[in-house]
Write a structure and sequence with these properties.
alpha/beta, D-Maltodextrin-Binding Protein, domain 2, six-stranded mixed beta sheet, five-stranded mixed beta sheet, 10 helices, globular
């Protein structure tokens, strides 16, 4: 583990000096994590990022195939799997925070009540079409959606209304484009213009997912990867994470 003072000095040094030796980092990341904070960091430092982004199943396959990466950002369960394989640099894991699921509709559509489990059930029943990640891709949100739909006794109905997407961001885009009436996705994935968050799932059926970043043993630039993690999880970024729908790690 690196002392916090040393890490923050390294972060400052990278931001000030990076334009002369900008790095190129390969990142395998869950779609719900990629956002404006990373874009800002890229502009500040001059570092370039190549992202492989997707739901859990896709990320698992990419990492298992040996795809080169300097950094991986995944859900905590998948990160635990990776740590078990011995492919992650010991001590490099840092929890970013947790994010819940929310209900999304088009900006112009009347907002349904989603304050209780029964209200969510009725919203799903009344929707003509429901966007969600293709179940074959193993996304966190679709797995949980089908779980709660099964609990409501409407799993088959939800499946019949399905408009499959490549991930949560794509599901939101399909709602924004009018290809689906509603979606249940990670709150941090709601970016598409024309779509809005109605509200989070009620706590009784909510799923909080912790995401973590870590450095693979195969990373060719672990030093810059470590500084990048420190920058993303530093105190100055806490408000940014909160505004993006996260509860930052303590």
């Amino acid at each position: 583990m690196f002392p916090l003072r040393a890490v923050m000095i390294a972060v400052t040094a990278v931001i000030m000096a990076a334009p002369a030796w900008a790095a190129e980092l390969k990142v395998i990341s869950a779609g719900g994590v990629v956002g404006g904070m990373i874009e800002d960091y890229s502009r500040q430092t001059g570092h370039k990022f190549t992202f492989t982004v997707g739901p859990t199943g896709m990320l698992r396959n990419a990492i298992a195939s040996g795809q080169p990466a300097d950094l991986v950002i995944t859900s905590a369960p998948l990160m635990a799997e990776l740590e078990g394989t011995g492919k992650i640099t010991p001590g490099s894991r840092v929890d970013i925070g947790r994010v819940g699921l929310g209900v999304v509709i088009r900006d112009s559509a009347p907002a349904p009540d989603v304050s209780t489990p029964e209200a969510v059930k009725q919203a799903l029943i009344k929707a003509a079409t429901i966007a969600y990640t293709d179940p074959k891709l193993g996304g966190t949100s679709v797995i949980h959606l089908m779980k709660i739909a099964d609990g409501f006794g409407i799993k088959d109905l939800v499946a019949q209304k399905g408009v499959t997407a490549t991930g949560g961001n794509d599901a939101v885009a399909k709602v924004a484009d009018g290809k689906a009436d509603i979606a249940v996705v990670l709150i941090s994935e709601i970016h598409a213009k024309g779509a809005k968050l109605v509200g989070p799932l009620p706590e009784a059926i909510q799923l909080w997912t912790v995401y973590a970043a870590a450095i693979p043993l195969s990373s060719t630039d672990p030093a810059n990867a470590r500084v990048f993690i420190a920058a993303l999880t530093g105190p100055s970024m806490r408000d940014r994470w909160t505004k993006a729908g996260w509860q930052p790690a303590k």
